[in-house]
Amino acid sequence: MPDVATAREYLDRGLYELKAQEKDWDRRENYLKGIQDMPYAPEGVNEEYESLQKMAIANLLEIAMNGPIQRLQADGFRTGRNDKADQNAWTEIWQPNKLDSRQGIVYRQMFVHGRGVMSVSRNDANPKSPKIRPESSRRVWIEPNPEDPFEPLFTVKKFTVTNRAPSQLILPDSLTTTTQVAYVYTENEWFKYEAAGNSSDWQLKDQGEHNMGGNPFVPFDFNLDADGRPQPAIAKLMPQQDAINTIRFNTLLAMQFSAFRQRVFTGFDPVVRDEKGNPIVKKDPATGQPILDANGLQQPVVRSPGRVGVDRALVFPGDQTKVFDLPESNLDNYIKVLDKFLNDFMVIGQIPPAYALTKMANTSGDAMSGAESTFQSLEKELKRAAGESLEQVMRLGNVARGEQEPDVASEVIWADTEIRSFAQIVDAIGKLVTSGMSRKDAWSMLPNATPPKVTDWVTNSDDERAAADAQILKMAGG
After folding, report:
1. Rounded CA gap, 397 and 415, in Å?
2. Rounded to 5°, angle at Cα 401 from 395 and 405
C-alpha cells in the first residue's frame, strides 16, 4: 500500500503525462470534429482565397471513425453462473448506468485516441447498482506497471471546478475563481489533492480506501504494442485528410479562375490621348482639378474595350491590337487525382466502398457483405479489444455491489451487425433449433436480443404452448 509520499510521486507523474499528451489529444479531437488545418496558400491572399480554403475542408475522418464504432453494441453478458445472474448483470448493472447509449463514448475514444476509460464505484444510494461512468482519456492517466505494462500501477484523474460567489446576478469572469482537483487511485486506496487557480501547489485534502480489489479505472486500449502502448487509429488518416483538403482547394481555385475560356487582348492601349499623344486626365467638374487615385497619381481617361456578345463586334484602334482565347483548365484531371486519394483514404481506413455512394450501386447483399470483409475484420478487432475491458468493468461492478464469488467467466454478447437479410437470420436460427440447440441460445442471436427480451420470448412461447396443449386436451376430453 502506498504511503503519502509515494502517492504524491504518482500525482506528479500522472500530471506530467496528462500535460504531455494534451496537445496531440486536442489536435486529434479537433480533426475528428472537422476543425482542421487550412490548405496551404501564400501569405497575404485575399478574402476570396480564404473563403475557398474554408470550403475545401470535407471532414471524411468523422465517417471513417464513426463507421466501425456504430457497429459496436453490447447486447448482454454471460456471467458463467446461471441465467438469473446473466439477467441481473444486465438489469442491475448495465441498464441503470444508461450504458446502451454511453458505451459508444468509450469505444470512440478507444478508436480515435487509442484509449477509452471507464470507472467503477460503489453506489451508496442503491448498493445493487454500482456507478459505471465513461471517463475522458484527456483527463485520466493510467500508468502501466513497469513489471507488467498490461496491468495498471496507478491512475490520476484531474479536473477543474469553477467557484462562483452566491448571487442571482451574472458575474464577470474576474469575480470567479477556479480550483484544480486531482485524485490518485491505487489498487485499494485513493488520495484527493487540490490546487488553487493554475498553481502547482497541490495540497492533500483527503484519502481513504475504495476496496474494489483492483484499480477502479479500466482502460479500453486499441492497437497495443508489446510495451502496452495504444496507437490512435486516426493518426494515420490525418495526413490523408490534409491531402484531400489540399486537392479540393486546388480544384476550387481552378474552377474559380480557370474553368472557363479567358479572352486576352494585347497591343490595345485603352488610355485616351490628345493629338500630341499625351494622356487626357479626369477632372473634377466642380473644381476643374485633376482627380487623383489612391496613390496620389492623376487618373487618365480610358475607353472601354466593349462587351462581348453574339450580336456585337469588338473594334479596337491601332494596328497592333490582337485578341485571342486561353483554353479552360481540364477539371477532369483534378477529379481523377481526388478520386485516387479518396480511394487510398478508404483503403488505409478499411472503409467499405459502400460508404462512397458512387463506388457501389445496385449490388446484392452477398456482394455488399464480401466488400465489407476488411471492415468486418476491423470490427472484430475492436470487439476483442473492447470486450476484454467490458468484462473487467462488469467484474468490478459485481465487487462494488458486494458479491463475494469472483466472476472470471464473464463474456460480452455483441449485437450482430453484419450485412444479411432478416430472412437469412431467421432461417439459420430455425435450423439451429431443429438441430437440437436450445431456443434461448438460438434466439439470443436475433438482432437486438437483450437478455430480458430473450427471457420474455421463451416465457411467452412456453405459455402459448402450454395453453395450446391444454386446449387440445380439453377438446380430446370433450
Report:
1. 22
2. 55
Cβ–Cβ < 8 Å for 348, 65: no
pLDDT digits (tens, 9 = 90+) for 271-299: 888 888 788 888 888 888 888 887 888 88
Distance of CA 201 to the CA centre of its chain: 35
Cβ density class 388-409: b for 16+ within 10 Å, e for less: ebbbbbbbbbbbbbebeeebee
267 torsion bin: left (phi>0), alpha (psi -120 to 50), beta (else): left
DSSP line for 96-130: GGTHHHHHHHHHHHHHHHSEEEEEEE--SS-TTS-
Predicted local confidence at residue 47, as pLDDT? 82
Q: Convert the pLDDT of each residue in 119-138 to its tens digit.
A: 999 999 999 999 999 999 99
Edge-to-edge strand ranges of the sheet holding 131-135? 131-135, 115-121, 217-221
For residue 459, the number of C-alpha atoms closer than 13 Å in the C-beta half-sphere is: 6
Phi and psi torsions of 259, nearest 5°: -80, -10
| Residue 362 φ/ψ region, left for φ over 0, alpha for ψ in the -120 to 50 degree band, beta for the rest | left
Distance CA(78)–CA(86), nearest Å, equals: 5
Residue for grid cell 471532414? 59
Dig out the grid coordinates for 21 from the structure: 499528451
By the 8 A CB rule, do 1 and 189 touch? yes
**What does the block give as the cell for 140?**
485520466
The b-or-e profile of 433-467 (16+ CB within 10 A means b, else e) is eeeeeeeeebbbbbeebbbeebbebbeeeeeeeee
Amino acid of residue 314: L
Cα separations in angstroms, 398 against 95, 258, 385: 14, 67, 21
Residue 421 neighbours by CB distance under 10 Å: 10
Residue pLDDT, tens place only, 75-114: 888 776 776 777 888 888 899 999 989 999 999 999 999 9
Torsion angles phi and psi, residue 143, rounded to 5: -80, 125
C-alpha cell at 130: 454500482
- H helical segments located in 164-291: 238-257
Cell (9 digits) for 138: 484527456
Q: Cell digits for 237? A: 488518416
Where b means 16+ CB within 10 Å and e means fewer, 218-232 reads bbbbbbbeeeeebeb
* Phi-psi label, residue 171: left if phi above 0, alpha if psi -120 to 50, beta otherwise: beta
Distance CA 367, CA 39 (A): 37
Cα separation, 435 vs 429, in Å, equals 10
Residue 195 CA to residue 160 CA, distance in Å, equals 10
Supply 319's cell numbers: 494596328
Give how far the C-alpha of residue 266 lies from the chain's centroid of Cα atoms, to the nearest Å.
55
